[in-house]
Predict the structure.
Amino acid sequence: MSADHVVQLHWESRHVADGGAALSYPGISVVRSEHGEIVDRTWVPVGEEPTFADDEALIAVLHAAWRWTRPAA
């Protein structure tokens, strides 16, 4: 892993106001930093009953982040 490319995972909720009602969605933020500066942030929702598609979306984001940390061959 490169010290210049850092990936962090954060448990975050997204809040949405819909008229008078406020909704909150739990999820995971995958944050990519390069030389200490955030260059990308991807939020993936995580429900209480995740679907296969939810799992695949999270795996894809984590895989892309892992590959990003690897130096080019």
In short: The longest helix spans residues 52-69. The first strand starts at residue 5 and ends at 18. The CA atoms of residues 60 and 66 lie 10 Å apart.
